Amino acid sequence: MTDTLTPSVRAWLEGPRYAVLATLNPSGAPQITEMWYELRGDEVIFNTTEDRAKTRNVERDARVSLLVSQRKGEPTFQSTNYVRIDGQARKIADGAKGLEDILSLAERYDGKEAGERARAGYSKQRRVTYAISIRKVYAKGV
Predict the structure, then answer these.
(1) Which end of the chain is least crowded, N or C, by CB within 10 Å?
(2) What torsion, rounded to 10 degrees, do the Cα atoms 10, 117, 31, 129 define?
């Protein structure tokens, strides 16, 4: 466990892996969502719509955990390596910038053409981007 990204953890996170984000519901129960992410500097960003439970949860209680454990195309639960990040999420973009962020993520995961095809669907949504300020990093096999 560390409080910074080591070079090997940074390399792990730079790949197009899927992540599971955990936020806290009002009851204190966890709410988890599989999602895309991107490493930006020393923070991890994610994008969602304004009307989702994770958005309401983060706005109420910014504590989150993100588990990154598989590459795109790998069967679920086949990886024994993972990185878990605990931190605080804060809104960094909405509106046009939030839309551009989700299009960038779509391109990162599905390629440039797929990202452009997604524009019509995403442009009808109110998108928001959050950055996770990292407090703790747990890594296994990375």
Answers:
(1) N
(2) 60
Q: Is 58 helix (H, G, I), strand (E, B) or coil?
A: helix
Count of Cβ atoms closer than 10 Å to residue 93 Cβ: 18
User: How many alpha carbons fall within 13 Å on the CB side of residue 87?
Assistant: 24
Q: Residue 130 is encoded by which pair of tokens? A: 């959050």
| Residue from 135, 132, 137, 138 nearest 62 by CA | 132
What is the side-by-side strand order in the sheet with 82-94? 30-35, 17-24, 63-71, 82-94, 127-140, 43-49, 38-40
The reported pTM is 0.90
pLDDT tens, 15-59? 888 899 999 999 999 999 999 999 999 999 999 999 999 999 999
